[in-house]
Amino acid sequence: MIATLAASEHDRRKYCYYLRRSYIEARKDTKWCPAPGCEHAVSYDGGNENYDVSCLCKYAFCWNCTEEAHRPVDCETVKQWILKNSAESENTNWILANSKPCPKCLRPIEKNNGCMHMTCTKPCEFHFCWLCLGAWSDHSQKTEQSILEAKALEDLHQMQTVNMDKVKELQGIGVGDGEFEFLLNAWKQIVECRRVLRWTYAYGYYIPDHDTAKKQFFEYLQGQAESGLEKLHHCAETELLPFLDEDCPKQYSLSHAFIHFKTKLAALTEVTKIYFDNLVRALENDLSDVEFQ
């Protein structure tokens, strides 16, 4: 009634806009998608303990804290991880602009190249990290973990922006959607596994050093899952290429070679899903299956 009586079309649209927003924001089971520029709302039925939800815009986020979907780690771990990385980023420019004393002999060391691995001059020759001043031998594992996390982020972006377009191209070359459904399932699994893998590094970072058994079990599960993911990723991306180059894709889609590829990729997708389901379940249970001596 009020919208009908509004003085202008602009006023009516403005009224309807705020009416819709107030309706969404008043509901406990509905939230606006936090993705930049998205105007969709997402509902959550609360039927399980998994807070990860997906919007129509394809952005996945946590219903509880509205950060990016982060299963299997909890919201508090995500908060600590984000604050830690934010603080390190803010301090990096200041740190890199100053000379520092060697943490062993206290002799001033000036950074003159891009590498974080520093070596003090003779006779000290102590190897240390420029950012945290810790011994390089102790720091290298954390450095490797950061590199792996960055790799997971890069791969996830690649999956979402480039490789999904390949699937759409395949569906437009005269072959029915069902013929390539296994490939779409594989890429969806890769995207999900890369996201899960990235957050496992946050979980591993906060395992206390004295919990040796838990750390070893975590590294075993993570390594098993990552190994399976790399095989799946290689098959989906590299072994598909010969079929994309064929002049008659529909004909080759029924060839013996393609059927073999299809069977292999479907099997790798299922195995990788099992690995990651086991990893997620174990981390959500805080690795309770570990038997401490």
Automatic annotation (TrEMBL):
Known cofactor(s): Zn(2+)
Catalyzed reaction equations: [E2 ubiquitin-conjugating enzyme]-S-ubiquitinyl-L-cysteine + [acceptor protein]-L-lysine = [E2 ubiquitin-conjugating enzyme]-L-cysteine + [acceptor protein]-N(6)-ubiquitinyl-L-lysine
Keywords associated with the record: Metal-binding, Repeat, Transferase, Ubl conjugation pathway, Zinc, Zinc-finger
Designated name of the protein: RBR-type E3 ubiquitin transferase
Keyword DNA-binding among UniProt keywords: no
InterPro entries in the record: E3_UB_ligase_RBR, IBR_dom, TRIAD_supradom
Keyword Repeat: yes
Pathway: Protein modification; protein ubiquitination
Lineage top rank: taxon: Eukaryota
Enzyme type, top EC level: transferase
Pfam name, any one: IBR
GO BP annotations listed: protein ubiquitination
GO MF assignments: ubiquitin protein ligase activity; zinc ion binding
Organism, scientific name: Rubus argutus (Southern blackberry)
Enzyme Commission number(s) from the entry: 2.3.2.31
Domain RING-type: 1-156
